[in-house]
Amino acid sequence: MKLPKATPNNQLSGIKVLIFALFSLCLLSSCTLSDILEGGSNSQISREDKIAMGLKEALKVGIEKTTDSLHQVNGYLGRKAIALILPDDVQKIFGYCKSLNTNPLLSSFLVKPLLKLEDSLLISLNRAAELAAPRSLPIFSDAIRSLTINDVMGIFRGDSVAATRHFQNETSSQLITVYTPLIDSALARVSAVGIWEKFSTQYNSLVEEYNAIPLALRQELGKPPTLTTNLSTYTTKKAMDGLFYMVGQQEALIRKDPVARVTDILKEVFGELDKTE
Fold first, then answer.
1. In 10 A of CB 54, how many CB atoms?
2. How far is CA 20 from CA 8, 13, 35, 199, 225, in A?
């Protein structure tokens, strides 16, 4: 059986049917005719997925560069913005001991040994943070993967550290729970725990000596500050603050500088932001 030859009228009718079908498909899929003729738009969901990949990649790159940088000697201590300082109550204690030490008549045999611990305690806290930094990578990587599409789209067009800030706000409490044992181990390895115990013991002895002297002299010396800091809690929080600060710096750099976009997905996603600025 021979098929009828296509005539101009038949061809025109076929084109009309095709156009109608394409138009109907556009209405159903919320895309344009050009999208379909060019092979499909990949839809808004695909774009969101790509943005999510880009932001997670930015955080991943930021964490990797940060942990590697902070793991170096003076990775914390050499950076004024993130270096761990002594807790407020400890600073007050050393200030109090220095005031006692200025007067030989009031200087206790416990004061000078206490003052000698100041630098070693400060350095050991920073060394613990530096030692623990790379061990945080899998913890933070898991948290990055848990970011949802809604999280991502809410921060995509945010400020230069929007992703880092969201990540910090939403995950800090869980991360602290997991990161604390790593810091505890690091504190022990760099002798910070031993220095802290020596400091606490000597200071408690100084307070006992203070309480044993006559009231008039106590009033002259002033009341010793109270030691309340938990070394593990304090060091963990400060170490994480430094991590997040440095990750934020990396995120800002990736958003701003094309050279910092070291993967294809970063170039594509953040290149889109460049076009809208």
1. 26
2. 18, 11, 15, 84, 83
C-beta of residue 129 within 8 angstroms of C-beta of residue 66? no
Quote the Cα angle for 196-199-202, to 5°.
Answer: 145
DSSP for 120-185, written as a single string: HHHHHHHHHHHHHGGGGHHHHHHHHHT--HHHHHHHTTS-TTHHHHHHHHHHHHHHHHHHHHHHHH
Question: Could you report the per-residue pLDDT of 75-100, keeping only the tens digit for each?
Answer: 999 999 999 999 999 999 999 999 88
- Least Cα distance to 115 among 202, 188, 216, 239 occurs for 202
**What pTM was computed for the model?**
0.76
Q: What percent of the chain has pLDDT over 70?
A: 80
CA distance 74 to 247: 17
Please state, as a whole number, how many other Cβ atoms lie within 10 Å of the Cβ of residue 126.
27
Q: Rg of the chain over CA atoms, in angstroms?
A: 31
Q: Which two tokens stand for residue 271?
A: 């290149």
d(CA 164, CA 98): 41
Distances (CA, A) of 181 to 82, 140, 194: 21, 15, 17
- Residue 132's alpha-carbon distances to 45, 182, 194, 201, 232, in angstroms, are 38, 6, 18, 26, 13
> Residue 40: left (phi > 0), alpha (psi -120 to 50), or beta?
left
